Structure formats: structure tokens, C-alpha cells
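Continuing the series of single-chain predictions for the mutant panel. This is the parent chain; the variants come on the following pages.
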Amino acid sequence: MRSATTAVISSIDTAVREAQWGTSARFVGLAIASITPAVFWCVVVQLIAYWSGTSLSPMAVGALFVTIAAFLFAICAPLILRNPSAEDNAAHRAAPDQNGRPASR
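Parent structure:
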């Protein structure tokens, strides 16, 4: 039973790893990962300012948005836009086979 389950999980993992996403899909993901949290935090800051009885200028909220989005873009871009196929192939070649010997391809 365990070997059958392991084989199924291995084949699913291989299928997922081999699915190639286009560059445009990666940029859409990067935009979502950068812009969505920036909008959330701008809304939170605006609500806190409203509840405290002060008002923020649109320029200040816009500067906050750009700062957060640029920071998240700088952090997320190398992670999202990397080439996973080269890394997966290198890791797969380096992984030992079931008997502990180096895998050969």
C-alpha cells in the first residue's frame, strides 16, 4: 500500500513540477503579490487615520502605496520570476536513488 501511495504522490509531484507557466502568468502573480498587500495596508492606515480624527492627503497614501508595492516587488520578483525547471533538474540529478546511489540519467 505504501509503495502504491508513494508512486501516486511521486507522479503527481512530477506532473506539477513539469507544468510550465508562461512569463505573463508569472508577472500577473507578481503584480498580485505586490499590489494586493499594498492596497490592504493603505486602507488600514487610512482607517486608522480616520478613527483617530486626522486626515491623510492622497499624496501621502499614494506614496505609502508605492513604497509598499515597490518593496514587495523587490522581495517577490526573484522568488516568483526564477527559472524553476533548471533548479528542479539540478536537484533531481543530485538526489540519490532508492538504494542510496547517485541517480544517473
